[in-house]
Every structure is written in structure tokens, then in C-alpha cells.
Amino acid sequence: MELIDQHTKKIMEGCKDRAREAGLRFQDETLEYIVTNRDLIELSPKVMIPTLYDYWVHDVEVLKEKGKYELYPSNPYETVINTRPAISFYNDNNPDWLNVMIFYHVIGHIDFFQNNIFFKNTWDMDFTGHALSDKRMIARLRSEKGRWVDYIIEFTRSIDNLVGYHEELAKLNRPQKTFATSKLDFYFDVFLQSEKKVSVGDYVKEIERYNDCVKNYQDMGEETFFSEIDRKYPEFLAVYKKSQESKSENKPDIVQFIMDNSENLNKEENKWMKSVMQIIRKTSLFFQPQIRTKIMNEGWASYWHETLFLRDDRIKGHEVDFARVNAGVTAMPRVGLNPYALGMRLFYYLEDMANKGQYSFKYRSLKDSYKRKIFDEKTGRGKKFIFDTRENLCDFMFINTFIDQDFTDLNNLFVVGKRLNEQKMVWEYYVQSKSAKDYKNMVIDSLYHPPLVEVDTEKTDDKKLYLVHRFEDKPLVKEYIHNTMVGIEYLWGGPVSLETSEVLSISAPRANTGNMEPVVKWQRVVYTMDNRKISRKII
Questions:
Q1: What are the contacts of 61-67 at 24+ separation with CB within 8 A?
Q2: For the chain, how far is it from start to end, CA to CA, in angstroms?
Q3: For residue 416, which phi and psi values (nearest 5 degrees)?
Q4: CA of 487: how far to CAs of 158, 480, 494, in Å?
Q5: Which residue stretches of the chain have pLDDT < 70?
């Protein structure tokens, strides 16, 4: 592995200048490395972080990838990681025109990493430096503790998808509230709606009164507003103070709770285990935003490599070569999902809609299909709209907000079903639905969505850890429950209970409901792991 030569680096710097002119924002410093296929095979299990800690699963993945490569040799165009500075890896046999395309794609990724708010917990973090320090610590502990280090890594990794990513993100994105703003939020969000249950009209009048006070009295606006509240609702201040006293702090995730409260881990001879657990938790938190923005991230990078490449005068004569490579990356499959293609087309669609002013109440209220088709206010706001989208959304919000029937019709998208042809004994694929709702649900079902498992502090004591799975109509995978709970029991140092929901019965769809899905009845159960033996009880 070595840095790219000066000729190729000059191409990259030229791509950066053009990207900035188009509106992309990113740090100046980047590192680009030439790697062999062997390097890529060995880096892939470590998520392309060269300094990540060593673990036996990585070695297994390397062997698997080597076997796969021998059967199906292929060369990825690029890989970029979200570090400071950003690091990207390239094959050593790319022609200059292809590097231009690839560099634009990489710059799109870097812009996304450094501006999307779901990556905010990584913006000020030199992860490669952290990873190197963590790797050295684990190597030192292995020399002292032997295989027990790998047990702790194994047990912690089994629950590293349950880290409190959104709680950590909320601490960074939530502005610090003053006493006045906190009281104001409580008044509008809780007091008027839950305590007084005022009508919508009265609620709107209060908002208007607040706006008038701020407008007319400026710095004294909120004080003037609350003086009227004290007169009208003398009990408000007492209710507010009581709510603040009973307000609970954010609950720590399972990994953090075990580290903070396990008597076993807090024994002097076991405190080293907490250092290993913290490394696994920190690594998981670092990669969470990448898992949750795959479609947006790849779509954004593909949008820009196509947009900027076609404007670049350095690629004249290679337009056909580009078209062939680009089609291979961004073609929309009939069966399956290509995040590059779906994300890129959505960004193009949003830009066009925003340029025409079609994200407006005026457009949405039109019923005439012809008027909707020709509607164009020529706002010129398309670029700003997609930049704002890039900054503020994750995959779920992106898909759930913007996939509509117009988009699915425009791109001829549909949900594919699979059935067995018993006569020919072959599987057949068929168009199951062209509804935007069904297509959207299919994409959402494919997104990363770990279960929400929390610690029940009321049922947890010094001996027993009680976990509750907040059920979202998706059961836990039974085959993983036993081994995962064995690991949690070891870390906690005592019995562990897990409350979850399982299928009680499945019945045929009810007639005349219009819903062809089978009816599932659920029941709550509790699994208890005690001394490596598991039991199950119906609640």
C-alpha cells in the first residue's frame, strides 16, 4: 500500500476545485492510497480501517474473501473511509479518465461524511488514531490475560448493535436550553395539551400571543408573555417545577449500563474488561451513521460523479467508456435493490421537483393530472433543496418522505414476488405491485433497524439484570438469544432476564377486510439465563 503519485494527486486536486465550485464542502486534506487486491481482501473485514484491532473473525473473513476472489475475481473502483483526514483506496491500474470519475465519487462521499448531521459524532474524531491506540491496548491485554480478552470482545460484539446511537447524537444536536426556553416548551408541549387540553383554536391564539409579545417587546417578550400566564394559570409554575424534578435523564444503553453497574466488572481484577467493552462500544457508535445512510450516501456520491464528470474537459473522448462504467454502477435492477441507483435517482427527482416548485401546498392541492404535469414555477431552488436534504436526513427519513407514486411511475419501479411453478418445478418472479406504498415498504424493510432493548431499572438489582425488548412487530431471532444471553450473563456477573414478544398463533386473513396478510397473535415471554442455562416463561 502506497500513496498515489504526484500526477494522479494533481488530478484529485483539480477535482476538488471543481467540486467546491459546484457547492460541495469538505476539508482540504485527504490521503489517497494505491492498494492491491490482497490489501483490499485483508482490509475489508476491518471496514477498511487499517489500524482497527485484531480479532479472529477478521481472519475468517479474509479466508472467505480469498476463496470468493479465486472463483469470482473483481476489482472495486474505490473505497473511502470517514477519518480525519479522509482516506481513500484505489487500484493501481486505473486510467486517468476513470480516476476523474472515481475522485468525484469519493469527494461526494467525503462531503456527505462531513456535513450530514447523523455523522456529527464523528466530525471531530481522528478514528484511525483512536483505533491504533485501541489496537495496542488490546494487544497488551492479550499478552497479559490471554484468550479472555477475545471472550470479552465476543460477548460485547454480540450486543454492539444495541448501543445508544441516537441518545449520543441527541447530546450533540440538541441546543442547550435556558430556563426560559425549557419553560416555554413545557407550556406549549405539555401544559396546554395534556394538563389543560385546550382547543386547537385557543392553542393557536396562544402561539400568536407569544409571537406578538416577542415582536413588540423584543428582549422583554418572553417575560411579558409569562406574566400573563402567571395571572391566567397561577398553578403553572408549580406544575412545571414538579415535572423538572421527576424528569429522568437519558437511559444508558445496555453496554454502558453493564460497564457502570456490574459488580463483577468493578472488581479490581476485572476492571480491564471495561476498557475492552468501551473500545467495542466506541467503534460501533462510529460506524452507526454509515449503516443508517447507505442509500443517501451512495446516491449522493453517484449524483456528483455523474454531474461533475460530464462537465469536466479532461475526459473528452472517453464519454462512451464513462457511460459503460456508470451504467454498471447506477443501473436500476428489476429484482433487488441498488442503493447507488435508487439514491441517485431520488436526488435527481428532488432537484427537478424543487426547481419546478412542486414541493408546495399549491402543487399538492392540484387534483387535475394535466395541471400537475405542466406545473413549473421555475424557482431555481433545486440545488439548495438537495443540499438541505443531504444535511438533515438519514435513509429512513429520505425513503419515507420522498418516495411517492410519481417517482415510482417515472422510474417504472415495482415490487417483485416469487412463486413456485409446480408444473415446471422452477421459481418464477412476477410483478406483485406497482404501488409506491408497497415499494416504499419493501425498501424500508431492507434498511438497518436493530431491536430496541432497554434495561428495566425497577426490576434490575445488584444480582439480576432485567432487559425489555420494545416490540415493533418484529420478533427477535430465536437462534441468537441463547448465545447472546450467555455473554451478557458473563459480563453482568449474575442472572439475566429478557422480556420479549413471540408468535402465539397465525390465522388466515379475515374476510371482507381488504387485508390479505395473515393475522398474527403475539404473546409476551421472559427468557432467563442463570448459570449458562436458559429458561422460558410466558407472562
A1: 65/41, 66/41
A2: 57
A3: -100, 135
A4: 8, 11, 11
A5: 63-66, 68-77, 173-180, 245-250, 510-516
